[in-house]
């Protein structure tokens, strides 16, 4: 059974010219792009997307980072797409948690600047796709 997940190539990934590399990994895994957009993120969108982290020490910096430059938002589809993309991304901390061979493990150094976001559950995916692609 196919499912959908919301993927962001965060502003660090765009600024470093890694969009093509990251999209290639998604496509080579066998996942399908069903929506794709380069956009600058309004603060309200970032706040809604990361509402679960409100009040945490990294929240203000995270909002500044996400709104600080263009990012790529995408909806990705395939069997177990949510877990499959989280596997491609690697753990949140690119050095301590993400394995070599994952996007974060191969390209990241700092937890904040970890290149990509992927929805972490079916409920998150539905919520996040609604935020970024309300017409989908
Ligand atoms: P994401 O939501 O972006 O896919 O990442 P995640 O599930 O792996 O990690 P999460 O705990 O949801 O954290 C969201 C994002 O906040 C930044 N962060 N910084 N400085 C820090 O300690 C810290 N912790 C989290 C990262 O950009 C992380 O991806
Ligand atoms: Mg998360």
UniProtKB/TrEMBL annotation:
- Return one GO MF term: nucleoside diphosphate kinase activity
Report one GO cellular component.
Answer: cytoplasm
Q: Which PANTHER family match?
A: NUCLEOSIDE DIPHOSPHATE KINASE (PTHR11349)
- This protein's source sits in the domain of life called Bacteria
Name its species. Nakamurella flava
Q: Could you tell me where this protein is found in the cell?
A: Cytoplasm
Please give the function described in this protein's UniProt entry.
Major role in the synthesis of nucleoside triphosphates other than ATP. The ATP gamma phosphate is transferred to the NDP beta phosphate via a ping-pong mechanism, using a phosphorylated active-site intermediate.
One BP term from GO: UTP biosynthetic process
Q: Which cofactors, if any, are listed as required?
A: Mg(2+)
* Protein name per Swiss-Prot or TrEMBL: Nucleoside diphosphate kinase
Keyword Lipid metabolism carried by entry: no
Q: Domain named Nucleoside diphosphate kinase-like: which ranges?
A: 2-136
The entry assigns this protein to a family as follows: Belongs to the NDK family.
Q: Which UniProt keywords apply?
A: ATP-binding, Cytoplasm, Kinase, Magnesium, Metal-binding, Nucleotide metabolism, Nucleotide-binding, Phosphoprotein, Transferase
